[in-house]
Each structure stands twice: as structure tokens, then as C-alpha cells.
Write a structure and sequence with these properties.
By secondary structure, the protein is an all-alpha fold. The chain has a domain of 187 residues. The protein has 18 helices and two strands. A two-stranded antiparallel ribbon has the order 1-2. Strand 1 and strand 2 form a beta hairpin. Helix 16 runs parallel beside helix 18. The longest helix is centred in the C-terminal third of the chain and has 18 residues. 49% of the residues are buried.
């Protein structure tokens, strides 16, 4: 049997096993196992390594809670973590009947107003599942995105995505700098990324600034480049999720009728994440200068891709394989050395569960 085919079948078996787990564990930590398994597979991991890693990681996970719910109006279940199993079962059935493309085209626009769900992990799981061509895991990703749905605007409902949005007025650099103008009386030092994002979304200026980002066909690429540059220079844990989520949204782009609108909703969550990352103005300014300076980008430290892949596969870190996989994919898309530097930073920075 062809080695790559055998390895792909091994990945599919491991992802099948992920159907037994709940989406979160230990009071709000996201299950990273399916994303890590796909990342490691894409980087060249053997089937035995996937099995070994899955067995080790699964010891921390919780069994899926089977709570019967009516999913006839699944939009009404957004934001209810108890609905994860019911939503997953619904998406499995819909994909089987209508096909992956139809389900994605219908669901994605309805999920984008809450794209920060699980610190972007609903979106990220969908990106990995799509690349792995595993419909069960895609159903899980969509279900987690819906169950952990994180609306950050006053009226982020299904109808909102069809309503004309305020005219944007700021380019990415100016918009990013303005993030530091946000002020809120809520607690912004909470341990979970999503809790800090929610707190920052309560800032009085947030609704206006969130939709002020000027978008074009290159905005999502530029967001990914900015996030990669900031991460390469700071190793910031929250910013790492901006890199991997931007990659996931780029991968899902063909299933959006309006990519610019999707990018603007992504920007809403990104603005909250920028503040949740606790970046200083100097870090932001330095990164904005660096990303537009080819010599400065080229000066960022990098390790050979084969070394990064091997190290990520061997690592027990919850994020190493994910950031190396996404950064390599973005590098292959755009040829920008910032993504190579982000992958290198990912192997130098120890992370924590989230």
C-alpha cells in the first residue's frame, strides 16, 4: 500500500476517534487533538506517531456529553455549549445529505459574527477538517463554532450578515494602532482569551472601530502577515491564534459568497484579540514597520523547514505543530519570510493549554 495513502487512512482513523470527546475540557480549555493530529500528519508524522500522540493527549479529555436537543432552528442554539453533540450530529447528517459544499456555504456566513468562538478554535478546527477531508471532524468544527459562538457586537445575529455595514475608513495599520484607544471598566486580565476579548468588546468605542477596517482582496493576507510578524517578534500566545485563524479563514474562502464581508467580521474578533493580547504600542509600531521592510523581515531568525517539521512532530506542546503547519502553508501561499519566522518562533516558545 502506498505510504501516503496508509498514513492518510491512519489520520482518518484517529480523527474518527475524536468523535468520542467533548469540545472542551477542564472548564473551558479547547480540545486541540484533531487539529494537532492533522498538523502533524501534514508535516510528515508516521501513523505510529499519530497514535502515540492521540493516546497521550486523550487522557486529559472528557467524554462527549449526549444531550438531546431540537436542532430544527440550529441558529437558536448558538452560544450553548450543551448543544455541541446535537449540533455535531445535525451537521453530520446535513453533510451526508446535502454535501460538504452546500453545508459550508449555508453555515459559514451565519457563524462569522461569532468567529472568535473558543479563541477562534471553531474556525481553526473547520480549516483543519477541510484540509483533512474528514466530514465528521468538519461537523465537529462547525458544531463547536456554533456552540461556543462569541458575538462581540450588540446585534450580531443571522440577519446582521445580510445588512449593509457602516462604511470602513481606516487602513490596517491605522486601525491596528487605534486598538490601543479602547478603554473599558471591565476586567481585562482574566485568564481565558475569550473572556478578555468579551471584556474589550464592551468598550464604548468598540462597535464603531470594529467595523472601521477598510477591506479589499488583500486584507486577509495582510492581516496574516501582520499577525505573523508580531508573533515572530514577540512570541505572544494570543497573536499565535491570529496567525492560525487567518490561515483557516483563507482556506475557507472559496465557500464564502462575500469574502470581504467575512474579513470584516473576522476584523471584529481580531480587534478584541489585539487588546486581549496585551501588546504594547511599541510592539505594534515595531511590527507595522517591520512588515513593510523587506530587509527587516529577512533579518528575523529562521530554522530550516525540515527541522521545524521534525521538531513539531516530536513536540508535546499543544500548539507547536499547528503554528508550524499554518505558517508553512501561508509561506507557500504568499512566499513571505514573516511566516517562516513565525514558524521558527513557534518552536522556540513554550505555550500552554487554552
Amino acid at each position: 500500500m502506498d505510504y501516503l495513502l496508509a498514513t492518510s487512512q491512519g489520520l482518518a482513523r484517529q480523527l474518527d476517534g475524536c468523535m468520542a470527546h467533548d469540545a472542551e475540557y477542564n472548564h473551558g480549555l479547547s480540545d486541540h487533538l484533531p487539529m494537532l493530529l492533522h498538523s502533524m500528519h501534514a508535516l510528515g508524522a508516521t501513523e505510529s506517531r499519530l497514535q502515540e500522540y492521540a493516546s497521550s493527549y486523550a487522557t486529559r479529555l472528557e467524554p462527549r456529553r449526549v444531550i438531546p436537543m431540537d436542532t430544527g432552528d440550529w441558529l437558536a442554539l448558538r452560544g450553548q455549549l450543551d448543544a455541541y453533540h446535537a449540533l455535531s450530529a445535525m451537521f453530520v447528517q446535513r453533510i451526508a445529505v446535502a454535501g460538504r459544499d452546500s453545508v459550508l456555504r449555508d453555515a459559514l456566513p451565519r457563524l462569522m459574527p461569532g468567529v472568535g468562538a473558543g479563541a477562534f478554535h471553531g474556525l481553526i478546527r473547520c480549516g483543519h477538517a477541510l484540509a483533512a477531508r474528514h466530514d465528521g471532524e468538519l461537523a465537529n468544527g462547525l458544531a463547536y463554532w456554533a456552540a461556543a459562538w462569541l458575538p462581540l457586537m450588540p446585534s450580531a445575529d443571522a440577519d446582521e450578515v445580510r445588512r449593509p455595514l457602516p462604511s470602513p475608513s481606516l487602513d490596517l495599520a491605522s486601525w491596528t494602532r487605534c486598538a490601543h484607544d479602547l478603554r473599558t471598566a471591565l476586567d481585562t486580565e482574566q485568564p481565558r482569551i475569550t473572556l478578555r476579548m468579551k471584556a474589550w468588546s464592551a468598550a464604548p468605542q468598540f462597535p464603531v472601530l470594529a467595523f472601521a477596517l477598510r477591506t479589499n482582496d488583500d486584507t486577509l493576507r495582510d492581516i496574516a502577515r501582520l499577525a505573523a510578524t508580531v508573533y515572530a517578534q514577540t512570541g505572544n500566545f494570543t497573536v499565535m491564534h491570529m496567525v492560525t485563524s487567518a490561515h483557516a479563514l483563507l482556506a475557507l474562502g472559496p465557500w464564502f459568497d462575500d469574502v470581504k464581508l467575512a474579513t470584516r467580521w473576522f476584523g471584529v474578533a481580531l480587534l478584541a484579540a489585539l487588546r486581549a493580547a496585551r501588546l504594547t504600542r511599541q510592539q505594534i509600531d515595531t511590527s507595522l514597520v517591520t512588515m513593510n521592510d523587506a530587509d527587516a523581515i529577512s533579518a528575523l531568525p529562521v530554522l530550516p523547514w525540515n527541522e521545524l517539521a521534525a521538531a513539531a512532530i516530536a513536540s508535546g506542546d499543544d500548539h507547536a505543530a499547528k503554528i508550524v503547519y499554518s505558517s508553512r502553508a501561508l509561506f507557500e501561499m504568499f512566499g513571505d519570510a514573516a511566516f517562516h519566522a513565525a514558524a521558527t518562533q513557534g518552536m522556540l516558545t513554550q505555550t500552554r493549554p487554552d
